[in-house]
Design a protein that fits this description.
By secondary structure, this protein is an alpha+beta fold. The protein has helices spanning about 1-15, 60-70, 75-95, 150-215, 220-255, 290-310, 355-420, 430-460, and strands at about 100-105, 105-110, 130-145, 315-325, 340-350.
Length: about 475
């Protein structure tokens, strides 16, 4: 008997080591990535700390905003809660490895009928009686994981929990990048406001001068009206830029988890310089992108679900048992004579399901293929975003150089025009045109600076964080 029991345990151990369904292998994406990126099979490294990448810009105000956003943003808190939820689901799945034990004590009192609806000899008379039943059973139930249904379910739940962690890092990266992008947009608008205020001031002075000349009859009313039109146009532009600043400020307040009405960032021209982009950024940096890691972990979860679906083809072995006490009197409930027990396995074998199991397997396979395509699309998107950001940086730098040259020329033209105007060689309108051109180039320079900073922020986000030379692993 002992030998048979030993062999039964060995057989159960062998069967429990099996798990139907395909084992997960990370997909190879070398066929969809450029060779000059030195790409290799995906090995997500989103767990590597990204650090306070925004400190590359060396702006204390930005550092303060980022810290506030990380501490107070509600989307980030929701992402943390989702991680706890996914981990709880994984623990819930893991609990299926263990037997369920329940203690179900009960008591009942009943009265039987003397007139039972059964045929008895006339010599036998039934009487009514009161019966008490005291029961203290301990019930056991356990599903033997012969085909790996529970193991595949746990594998899927753990992968989903890891995807939740990656989603959190993606929310964090997106949050910090949005704060930085909006902050530099705000500073660019501050520069524009300074330029437009000077424009309004200069044109207001011009209107006063021309108004005095109109009164003494040296200019026509058309010239005065044209000057007033230029002033009104500058005020409209100033008002529009101020509106854009207010909306950008409100967006930063929302990211920082603060009410917009109680949030303020004082106007200040931009003083920082965008960090220098290292030459030869390797593709290994892209492996830190949390969205790639999340997509890959979701793919692993879907792969495990194929095994869960296939396990439904095979029989399910349940072990059930009960032990406890049963008596009609509380006095002798826990005596030896009141002990009860039972034990026995049961097997459930699906014979006909109307195609439900096959449909579940097909659904799991299709879901895996869908997530595989999504994963590859995420990788392609990552390369596109990096290439876009690098192109934006290059062309923004070229545009900045050209605008510096144009601004220097406009300042020179304006200086010469002032000298000619003071000498009476040109009219005030010709001088006004040179000032307008100079201020327009100054405004364009402010806009380009904001675009340069934004492009660098987008590149950092596309790479999954900042960079150090130690990150360069080819």
């Amino acid at each position: 008997m002992k030998k048979k029991l030993r062999w039964l345990c060995v057989m159960l151990s062998v069967l429990c080591s099996c798990a139907v369904g395909p084992d997960y292998k990370r997909p190879d994406v070398t066929n969809i990535t450029p060779t000059d990126w030195h790409w290799k099979i995906a090995e997500p490294k989103d767990s590597i700390p990204k650090g306070d990448w925004w400190k590359l810009f060396k702006d204390p105000s930005l550092d303060e905003l980022e810290a506030g956003a990380v501490a107070n943003n509600q989307n980030l808190r929701a992402a943390v809660a989702r991680i706890d939820e996914y981990r709880a689901v994984a623990r819930l799945t893991r609990s299926q490895f263990y037997p369920e034990l329940s203690l179900d004590p009960s008591f009942s009192r009943q009265r039987t009928s003397a007139n039972q609806p059964i045929a008895l000899p006339s010599s036998i008379k039934l009487t009514s009686m009161n019966l008490n039943t005291f029961s203290v059973p301990l019930d056991l139930s356990y599903e033997v994981d012969l085909w790996g249904r529970v193991r595949r379910s746990l594998e899927s739940a753990q992968a989903q929990a890891e995807a939740g962690v990656a989603d959190y890092h993606n929310v964090l990266l997106t949050l910090t990048a949005d704060v930085a992008a909006n902050y530099f947009t705000l500073r660019s608008l501050d520069d524009e406001i300074v330029v437009l205020r000077r424009t309004v001031e200069l044109r207001d002075k011009s209107v006063h001068i021309l108004n005095d000349r109109f009164k003494i009859g040296t200019i026509s009313e058309t010239d005065l009206a044209r000057s007033k039109t230029e002033l009104a146009s500058a005020k409209v532009e100033l008002s529009d830029v101020a509106r854009q600043r207010a909306e950008t400020l409100n967006a930063i307040a929302l990211l920082c988890g603060k009410p917009a009405s109680a949030f303020e960032i004082h106007e200040r021209p931009a003083t920082a310089e965008p960090p220098v982009i290292p030459v030869g950024l390797p593709s290994s940096l892209l492996e830190r992108r949390p969205d790639i890691a999340s997509s890959e972990r979701n793919l692993a979860a879907k792969n495990a679900q194929i095994g869960v679906a296939r396990a439904a083809y095979f029989p399910v072995l349940h072990l059930t048992g009960q032990a406890g006490y049963l008596s009609s009197s509380l006095d002798n409930l826990f005596s030896n004579g009141s002990r009860i027990w039972s034990f026995g396995p049961s097997v459930s074998l699906p014979l006909f399901t109307g195609g439900r199991t096959a449909a579940s397997v097909d659904q799991a396979k299709a879901s895996y293929e869908e997530n595989l395509a999504n994963y590859r699309q995420t990788v392609l998107t990552a390369f596109k975003e990096v290439e876009d950001s690098l192109a934006q940086i290059v062309f923004a730098n070229e545009r900045a150089v050209a605008q510096d040259e144009a601004l220097a020329s406009a300042e020179r033209v304006n200086a010469l025009a002032k000298a000619r105007y003071e000498a009476g060689a040109i009219s005030s309108f010709e001088l006004l045109d040179t000032e307008r051109n100079k201020l327009q180039y100054e405004r364009q320079k402010s806009q380009t600076e904001g675009q340069r900073f934004g492009a660098v922020v987008r590149l950092i986000k596309a790479l999954g964080g900042g960079w150090e030379r130690s990150d360069f692993q080819w």
